[in-house]
Amino acid sequence: MHSADHTAGHVPEPTTLSTLQQDLLRKAELESAMIAAPQDQRLRGAYFEELMRFASVRTGLSHVLLPELGHPVSLRCGTADLIALLRVFRDQFYDVPQRATPQRILVLGAHVGYGAVYLAHRFPGAQILCVEPNAAAYRVLCMNTLPFRQIQTMCLAAWHSPTRLGVLARNLGDWGLQLHDQLPDAERTFPARSVSEILRMAGWEQVDMVVCDILGAEAAILADPGQRWLQTLDTLLVAVQEPRLPVFIEQARAGLDPAFYGYTSKGDLQVIERHVPFRAVILPQAREMPLINSGPGLFPIALQDPPATPWGFFVFDGDCCQLHPNAPGERPARAIFPRTLDGHSRFTATYFHAGRPSPAIVFSFIVAREDGSEVFRSSRALASGERQDIALDLPQLTGRHHLILQTEMAPEAPQNFSAWAQFLSPRIG
Predict the structure, then answer these.
(1) 412 and 329 inside one domain
(2) What is the pLDDT of residues 152-199, one digit of tens each?
(3) Which residues are 339's β-sheet partners?
(4) Which of 251, 287, 319, 367 is deepest in the core (most CB within 10 A)?
(5) CA–CA separation, 402 vs 338, rounded Å?
(6) Number of H helices and number of E strands within the chain?
(7) What are phi and psi of 372, to 5 degrees?
(8) Containing H/E element for 277?
(9) Nearest in space to 55 (alpha carbons), one of 27, 87, 28
């Protein structure tokens, strides 16, 4: 007879969640709720309150998931990252109307990249260059901007000339870092370059928008009012607190003539904007969109009657796909992309019949309303190994539509063996 290891009838205590597990669960529940109801401001407010509580009692790397981003951004708990995040995504610090759509944006003092991520989503066609001198913040900046092909980063400080800077003051960790060149050589560990040199390093001849949050160093970058980049600038957004504001305004007016620029403010953000944009396209502008997107976020796609084989449909090279046609006489294979359009009127792609040898394939691009009625259709038959660059003028499209890529075998085709039908970089613009 074996001795009993526990009292008969005893029910084990239920396993309790740790504080961290409870906090993570609460955070995940709020994230799921926000994704289900992205316009619910009450939920959004509760999420930011939970983030403040969550990040204030621990250190380490966590993430934030906001519905408008569709992908997480990194947050270092116990740092000023949270303050920076709240300013951009809760308080909408950079939500300033623009007269023109910027094509090139320079972010000075990019910190961990929240402002750059916001601008990348707002202006998806713009190239963005982030400059951040602090190595710890720069590492997180690289993580947060890595998914964006249009964002470059440099671990540098901006100044009026090439030099090295040291830490004059540290108000809010690496977000409140104040750098200066009037310090002993041993303390000057941060490399600095002028804005003109930074643009040259990036291969940019000019810049449309400069966003600047560098705690006093804006005086250095505006020290020479004759700099060429100032002459072609459309918009300057600078975070300036009250004690430094008079000096900033005086310097800015020397380089950005009030006869050509308007001066306004939004809290601590000073907004200087050219009355008539230098070269940018006047808003509104239908931005070019890839049908297949490997960038941040999730983009819907529906497949209709693709061949039930591994090569029936797949995405490659980030923005290309293969859509193998069915056997002759069977239903066409379709990839359907639901999109909300805003004056889009052009489709571009390269059609490629990559199979050798193979019968001819008919490639089609179709635009349909949500009720299924067709707005536009264009078809091309390609022989084995043939490639065609396609540029189609469409009726101006606004609202929700289905953009359809379709393949089928040509009428005379005996079979679909080796019929590798590929759409390369299909885009709507």
Answers:
(1) yes
(2) 999 999 999 999 999 998 888 888 888 999 999 999 999 999 999 999
(3) 401
(4) 367
(5) 4
(6) 9, 22
(7) 100, -15
(8) none
(9) 27
